[in-house]
Specification:
Serine Threonine Protein Phosphatase 5, Tetratricopeptide repeat; 24 helices; about 70% helix; about 0% strand; TPR-like_helical_dom_sf
Length: about 475
């Protein structure tokens, strides 16, 4: 049976960020240049045109002498229409500047790094351009978030060439660009460069970013070294720094180190635990299924005077849902209503996921319908849970309808979304459709991750397709070598 997932996806009106920014700005620019050209023509014709009066004035020269005309001694006033033209020209030039600035801001907000760089290059060509630190800061952060650390470093060098003196904040943004992309060694090179510059010494934010990078890469041997370096420089870690390290230790099950950091926070006056600390600890034990420890720590944090927030309750709901403790899950949701904490998309996602994992399509659909009735916006995780739930229940025709509904709602199709569809294909033993979805995933510039390859390898192994497995493993190793596999 063919599920026709790829045909459902192909019929969806996907949005693409086409590279039209440069062309649109040129179109916006043309009227202004046209206006300037008309002004130049007007000025040149005015210089060569004869006097407005066609009646010759009385001559006072003889043959061969200089042809002078009698004229009033009163000074001539500039015509009002010329003043108006100059004001119009200035206002239109100012409007063009605002248009470029707004377009650049819009590109940054939409994380369109290539378009943002193109607009910035166009801005630099204008006579009114002046380099600003704030503009470079925005672009450095954008490039780091969009996986372009090398381009960020290039932009940093261009900034220095333009005469902007680097600051600790700018260096920290460059370091963050490398650390966001797991290039820790390059991050250490940046911080060492900062330490050699008297006016660019690293601060607690710089070290926090580097610590988070080490945690994400499980380079825990570097954490103590960074802590010692901070202590030598009299830099005290703040609550954010400690929460980052606390989360890293908890995710890999290093509970002794986690408890040591938490004890230090409780004894410290500078970095007391906050609601984020509470959420991290509850997530660690909730994800591990250790409900008793999670509940015990919840009470401890409440006794410390830390009040829960919506995310705290969502963590509890998710943990209870994974253990199919639906009564406790419902109790938390009722308590949220009682104390007027709003149910969010994450709240519904946790409930939908709980029923999806159990293959309980009926209750899953009920939760989704209630979510829509309350005008709560569904996201990619919502549809991943629906697809997984229908697949677990063997309702593959509803998987197709979920994919079509996601297209109708213009839900972003990330790796998790494609993995859910590929997994559904594998569960339905439709390997041909699985391969079509995998091809579409790559055609849409959505890089497969380790989960993608794991699902497909298992599906091929089940059918004894060793040649397909070999090809996928080779492709996976190539992505690991390129550093593009997540």
């Amino acid at each position: 049976m063919s599920l026709s997932f790829s045909s459902s996806l192909l019929s969806s009106p996907l949005t693409h960020n086409k590279n039209k920014t440069h062309q649109q700005l040129k179109q916006n620019q043309n009227p202004i240049h046209t206006h300037k050209l008309l002004l130049r023509c007007a000025f040149s014709s005015a210089a060569t045109a004869p006097p407005s009066s066609t009646v010759p004035k009385k001559k006072h020269w003889k043959q061969g002498e200089f042809p002078g005309f009698t004229d009033d001694s009163r000074p001539r006033r500039t015509p009002i229409k010329n003043i108006k033209k100059k004001l119009d020209r200035k206002s239109k030039a100012k409007a063009w500047v605002n248009t470029v600035a707004e377009t650049l801001t819009d590109c940054v907000l939409k994380k369109q790094w290539l378009e943002a760089i193109q607009v910035f290059e166009m801005l630099k060509e204008q006579p009114f351009y002046q380099p600003k630190e704030a503009t470079y800061m925005k672009l450095l952060v954008l490039l780091g978030r969009c996986g372009q650390p090398q381009r960020a470093h290039q932009l940093f060098d261009e900034m220095v060439e333009e005469g902007i003196e680097p600051t600790p904040e700018l260096y920290t943004a460059l370091l963050a660009a490398y650390c966001r992309n797991n290039l820790i060694d390059e991050g250490f090179l940046i911080i060492n460069q900062m330490k050699s510059l008297p006016r660019c010494q690293p601060d607690v934010y710089t070290y926090s970013i580097l610590l988070k990078s080490c945690v994400d890469a499980s380079r825990f041997e570097l954490i103590e070294t960074l802590y010692q370096e901070m202590d030598e420089r009299l830099i005290s870690p703040n609550t954010v720094t400690q929460n980052v390290v606390l989360s890293g230790y908890g995710k890999v099950g290093m509970y002794d180190q986690m408890e040591r950091v938490l004890s230090g926070m409780l004894e410290s006056e500078a970095c007391k635990p906050d609601v984020w600390t509470m959420n991290i600890i509850l997530s660690v034990f909730g994800n591990k299924g250790q409900i008793d420890l999670m509940e015990r720590w919840y009470e401890k944090f409440r006794n410390f005077g830390i009040e829960p927030e919506t995310r705290t309750f969502n963590i509890l709901i998710g943990a209870y849902g994974k253990k199919r403790m639906y009564d406790k899950m419902s109790s938390v949701m009722e308590y949220m209503r009682k104390v007027q904490f709003p149910w969010t998309t994450s709240t519904y996602n946790n409930v939908i996921e709980a029923f999806a994992d159990a293959g309980d399509a009926k209750n899953m659909e009920y939760a989704f319908d209630q979510m829509r009735a309350e005008s709560m916006k569904a996201d990619t995780k919502t549809f991943c849970c629906l697809i997984n739930g229908y697949a677990n229940a063997g309702l593959f025709h509803k998987v197709i309808s979920s994919v079509q509904l996601a297209a109708k709602f213009e839900i972003p199709e990330n790796a998790s979304f494609y993995n859910a569809v590929i997994s559904a294909c594998a569960m339905a033993d439709d390997l041909m459709e699985m391969e079509r979805v995998f091809k579409r995933m790559k055609d849409k510039q959505c890089p497969p991750d380790s989960r993608t390859y794991s699902i497909m390898v298992e599906a091929y192994r089940k059918e004894g397709m060793n040649d397909k497995i070999y090809y996928l493993e080779q492709e996976q190793q190539e992505m690991i070598g390129n550093g593009t596999l997540k």
